[in-house]
Automatic annotation (TrEMBL):
PANTHER family: DNAJ HOMOLOG SUBFAMILY C MEMBER 5 HOMOLOG. Keywords: Chaperone, Lipoprotein, Membrane, Palmitate, Transmembrane, Transmembrane helix. This is Chaperone protein DNAj, putative. Residues 397-411 have a biased composition (Polar residues). It comes from Trypanosoma brucei gambiense (strain MHOM/CI/86/DAL972). The chain crosses the membrane at residues 93-112, 132-151, 158-181, 187-211, 232-257, 269-292, 313-331, 351-371. GO terms for cellular component: cytoplasm; membrane. InterPro entries: DnaJ_C_subfamily_member5, DnaJ_domain, DnaJ_domain_CS, J_dom_sf, TM_Fragile-X-F-assoc. It is a lipid-anchor. It comes from the Eukaryota.
Amino acid sequence: MLGRKCSGSLYTLMEVNENATPQEIKRAYHRLALILHPDKTDGTTTEQFTRLQEAYSILSDEQQRRTYNTFGREGVATLNKLNEMNVPVNPSAFRFLCFLVMMLILLLLLQLELVVVRLDYELSWKWPVVFIPLWIALAPPTLLALGLLAAGIKQLDFLCVCVGVEILLFVGSIATFVAGLCGALSWPVALSPAIAFYAVRVLHIIPHLFPSRFVQNSEDGSGEVTFSRKKYCLFVLMVLFEEGCAIAFFTLLMLRAMQKSEESKDEPLSFWIVFSPLIACLGLKALLHLCFCMICSKVEQPNQQASQKSTSAFLFVVYSSMIYVACMIAAKANVEINKWTDGFNPSAAVAVIPIQVIFISLFLASVIMFCTASRVYEAMLFGVANEEDDAERGATTPLSPRNTGGSNSFRCETVPGEHQQRKQGADEVV
């Protein structure tokens, strides 16, 4: 079973322990409701009473409580949102999702191998044909984007329109890049949708730079407000550095795209310079996670610290692999595009070794998830029932499904975005 991610705030609000029985939770609710009911306090405890009702609605429902214990309030909210969208939440739907992920990874792996063969063997295959697996993989997101646009325009939902436009910009940036490889478009035009997509993504980050995003109200009704200035400053510095490196990368890339090396007498811009902001950003991230791993190794907190250390170690390997790939691409581009014959020219197969390893690992993991979907779904969402719960229900196995058709009580908030990952990075540094 996955470890708990909840903060225990609902249990604190109900004044019960995390292992409290349903009867204890019910008694605690009735006791607190008599104290906090607005009719008995002239309306001064309306907010506390509302929080109490929300906490009881989650903790009194077995499935919601298990989900809260594993994923917190966001997990409960997420599943409810899926239910409102008529998305089935059950082992069969989870197995189908695993199958889709498995097929997507397989298509991406096939796409990578086709590009490697096309480059290393200098075949005359046309680039649009080489990218057929990617076109297949992008078909569902494209249809989803069109559906979101239509629904957003019809219902005047600005968020749906923005998400649809973002997806279409992403798909369009890939299509124009392939057109640039074919020579159908000039490189400045071919790269424009990618820059537009990045600009739209940056707009999502701006609202999260306000200090109010780091102000937290206690959920126990005490009204206390906390704000970590150090975490906020680190978060802002990380965002500014990352976005500055990205802007510098796209600027240098566009400058190189506007050069016509074959006709111009000026020496073309080195791709080492073009990729230097990207390498610097990835290098700093890898260094930060390496330092965090070393710091965690000296702290004896086996639960949360061990989990954070494993995550940082994994991210260190990922960022280091991305640095390797960026360096190989820069070296190969100098030889193939700039025609600098005296430089190092790695094969495409060698350049993408880390990506191949990642795709193969993800594919094997998705196959295992598909084969064990029922057990994984049960462990992830509901956990393993304790012996008392099994005895009360007369269950025969601790992993027997308890909800095969979803629940109307499930709710969802948002999927953590990139700004939340940066916040986590700031927490790790602190």
